[in-house]
Amino acid sequence: MIDLRSDTFTLPSKEMMESIMNAKLGDDVWEEDPTVIELEALIAKKLGKEAGLLVTSGTQGNLVSHMTHLARGDGVVLEKESHINLYEVGGVSQVSGAYPMIVNGENGLMDPKDIESIFTTPYNVHKVIPRLLCLENTHNRGGGRIIPKDNIDTLSKIANENGGSVHLDGARLFNAAVATGISAAKLAEKVDSVQICLSKGLGCPIGSLIVGTEDFIFKSRRNRKIVGGGMRQAGIIAAPGIYALTNMIDRLAEDHNHAKMLGKALEEIQNFNVKPYDTNIVIVDTTESKLSAGDVADKLEKKGILVTFMEDQLFRMVTYFGITKEDVESVISSIFEVLK
Ligand SMILES: Cc1ncc(COP(=O)(O)O)c(C=O)c1O
Fold it and tell me: What separation in Å is there between the alpha carbon of 332 and the centre of ligand 1?
């Protein structure tokens, strides 16, 4: 099977597994695991923030950040198609007690006018007060779309100048950095906190990291404990993280090239509407075609290819470490054979 369902299917390399075997360990709840301490310092430096914290997953990283930024009844501004809005079980409300204020985006890109309007509506007794703006880069449902730095900077300025903080769900921020040639630190320079995933294109089996000020991380460490994220010899998770941040970032360009090959091939299928494929995700809308997303998934599965069925007329292919150029060429042959 060639599995293109998600970059979360990436398996750790032999070298990454060896990093686990060789990790120096301690009790991380006591802040005595040297490998975790090293990883947290490394990510803080890479993202140009004061401090970092290892968490179990992207969802936990976003949740813990929300718990730190938000109080009960605060407004949290979310893009309609964002992962936090659609796929994190409403934790931002359930756990942080915040009220979601939803903004429409265009493949994840929000219009500064909409953010301005939310953040500058004059105070009155009835109104929910927005306290946090969440951004997502790259944007998953936008087809791995890169949110440009000037948009991030403009939206962040509006929020910051009007009493709001900004959290960036950067599950795939390094994909954006590699594709644009702008460092992750520069892309995130105007936001207050960032979550990045180790367990997607970077190839780790587990883990995410959050970064922000010393004070943000101090509070987040306590919030992580509340949601069961205080881990003991967590160096076995941190060691592959260090390996990934050192060795797995630049190679993301290979995944982007593979996605471009797939995107171009899919554009040749009649009435397939392919979303912009800036990085490693290709999403196709089949509304104008005779084929539903389910038809496509079934036909490709018979050829040994797995894709994600997202909605009746929407399917997704994702490239990652472990999907080779030969795999992509073989998928393209099958696309032409069974879909054309
Ligand atoms: C943009 C984005 N944010 C957050 C997450 C959540 O990460 P996790 O699955 O590690 O909880 C994902 C997962 O796919 C994602 O795509």
Answer: 27
Ligand 1 pocket, 209 CB below 6 A? Answer: no
Q: How far is the CA of 218 from the centre of ligand 1 (A)?
A: 23
Q: What is the mean pLDDT of the chain?
A: 98
Residue 130: alpha-carbon gap to chain centroid: 23
pTM for the structure as a whole: 0.97
* Ligand 1 center–CA 197 separation, angstroms: 7
State the distance from the centre of ligand 1 to the C-alpha of 134, rounded, in angstroms: 14
Flag whether pLDDT at 58 surpasses 90: yes
Q: What is the bridge-based pairing of β-strands 51-55 and 281-285? A: unpaired
Q: Count of CB atoms within 10 A of residue 232's CB?
A: 14
Sequential DSSP letters for 20-44? HHT-----GGGT--HHHHHHHHHHH
* CB distance 171 to ligand 1 below 6 Å: yes
Q: Which ligand 1 atom lies nearest to the CA of residue 172?
A: 1
Q: Please tell me the distance from the alpha carbon of residue 213 to that of residue 205, in angstroms, as a whole number.
A: 27
- Residue 292 CA to ligand 1 center (angstroms) comes to 26
Q: Which two tokens stand for residue 183?
A: 């460092």
Q: Is the CB of 281 under 6 A from ligand 1?
A: no
Q: How far is the CA of 185 from the centre of ligand 1 (A)?
A: 20
CA–CA distance, 112 with 153 (Å, rounded to integer): 10
**Confidence tier at 29 by pLDDT (50, 70, 90):** very high
Work out which ligand 1 atom sits closest to the CA atom of 8. Answer: 14
Average pLDDT over residues 308-328: 97
**Residue 33 backbone zone (phi > 0: left; psi -120 to 50: alpha; other: beta):** beta
The pLDDT assigned to 340 comes to 84
- Half-sphere CA count of 37, side-chain side, radius 13 A: 11
Task: Quote the crossing angle between the two packed helices 112-120 and 149-161, to the nearest 10°.
Answer: 10
What domains are defined for the chain?
13-247 (3.40.640.10), 251-339 (3.90.1150.10)
* Protein residue with its CA nearest to atom 8 in ligand 1: 58
Q: How far apart are the C-alpha atoms of 27 and 37, rounded to whole Å? A: 11
